[in-house]
Amino acid sequence: MAAKTNTHVIFKQDPGAGWVEPSHMEVVKSDFNPETAELKDGQVLLKVLYLSLDPYMRSRMNTKAKSYIPPFEIGKTLQAGGVARVERVAGSGVEGLSKGDVVQGFLGWEEYTIAPAKGLKKVDTSMQIPLTYYLGVLGMPGLTAYGGIKKILNPKPSETIYVSGAAGAVGLVVGQVCKAMGCYVVGSAGSDDKVEMLLKEAKFDAAFNYKTVESYDKALEKHCPKGIDGYFDNVGGEMLDAVLKVMNTHGRIAICGAISQYNATEPYGIKNLVQVIKNRLLLQGLLASDFFSDSALVSDFFTTVGKYVKEGKIIYKEHVVEGVEKAPEAFVGMLKGANTGKQIVKVAKDV
Hints:
By secondary structure, this protein is an alpha/beta fold. 23% of the residues lie in helices and 26% in strands. The chain contains eight helices and 15 strands. The longest helix has 17 residues, at 295-311.
């Protein structure tokens, strides 16, 4: 029997500065019949299977801040990258999509969602790859990692590459790809279990728990004795400041995230920028969208990273919670580092 309600998560309140809490979101049930829900021309009704929760979403909760992506709207359903199954299509502009197809795109935090067909990409389910991988290692986090490596870090064999947030969705891919390229790879994470995983499973050369070290300076000096040639930054703040002092001449820094600052009431002021001049460093920010139109890079990404996954050169971790109603708690937990690897919400049974 068709569902008569749709559970979804709405954005209830701008959290302002400081930590976002589950109370800033609200789980609601609305009357909804997927068999009779109205679709406009070019729209598709989707049954959501998986949702991806990512740190960048925190900035979308700052409704008054200028950013590269529009903020969430208070009172509206939150959005995330996701994988879904096509239930119904309407009108023109949906060529190539039919009931039962699996697609990926930006979806609502809800059990059923209506989306424009033009924003969806069909998933090849014959590849025998877990669907969640299209939200992680072979999705936006993986492309972010690979694009940052190829376009900014440009690592060479034997160089030292340091990755902060190394047990996260992006950092885990960065470290292992650089390791496969012959680099000496160092990572940091927020628990001893994560550090053990980086060393024993992901085969990093060195790793440390940034929460328990005496100081970032001493930890970096110990684990990066030859200095740092490339730094993939997922955390910003004090860690970035410490890294600047250890960078080698002509080092490259790919600034992907600043999760240490997303919930800060007072932003950390970087003090060591003079090192950029002294060591002629390259600092460049990046977004996954920078690489979407680079067909050569995207093709290389799928070929290379897909091969590494199949060969076991990349292990990938996922932190999965079940039920869209669990998304608010999972999102807050992800921002606090409760996850290892990609934070996924399983909304419905796989196909």
